[in-house]
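LysR substrate-binding domain-containing protein
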Amino acid sequence: MTGSDASPSFRLAYVPGVTPTKWVRIWNERLPDIPLTLVQVSAAEALGALRGGEADAGFVRLPVDGADLSAIPLYTEATVVVVPKDHVVAAVDEVSTEDLADEIVLHPLDDTLDWERPPGQPAFERPANTADAIELVAAGIGLLVVPQSLARLHHRKDLTYRPLTDAPESRVALSWPQDATTDMVEDFIGIVRGRTVNSSRGRSKPAEEKQQPKPKRQPAAGTRRQPTTGKPTARNPRAGSGGTRTSKSGGRPGKPRRRS
């Protein structure tokens, strides 16, 4: 099968913590003939996947470096600190980075927060990823600061989290290669931005699908169409009077005269 014969498909990358379910559902409703394939990638690999053609578009975490990628910021996540349920932090509603000054705070290699200086005391070794850091928190080795969606993703019964009020926040965006802004990418952008299926900025419809003007209704065969207004004609000598003969006084219709 050649490339031109292959059925079209749309590949959507997404980083951990992003839930694309809503947008995928809308895509399947509007474009049922074009399958959408989800490609899960790490935050560090997401931009490379777009540049390498492994996905047509993707939900990534900002910043997006380079002028070759377009990005539409979507939302900003709250930042939380993950702690054991019996930790003192679990007893309060929220904390600041100053409250963590004496705590060991784990800083995994896949950290998505743009720290000038991570809070707390550094661990002897940086965990390889967030999942490993969660295991260390459960073991009582230290605490972990992450976007709230990652805390939910790695939820455990023995752990909890609290908002960290003065920490950097993580922003999620839809990104795609600028030189590959295809019709399908435009379709997905419209879905993410909440455009309706009839939006003028969506994909243009084929000519045969565009709404045609309604034809004028023709009278049924065998019926004569009489004008309702205008000058009298041979077929309608009483045009303009409604076709009803009235008396000069404007009362009831007069009786027809008897022919002598």
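thats it. Residues 21-30 form the longest helix (10 residues). The helical segments are 21-30, 46-51, 130-138, 148-153, 183-192. bye
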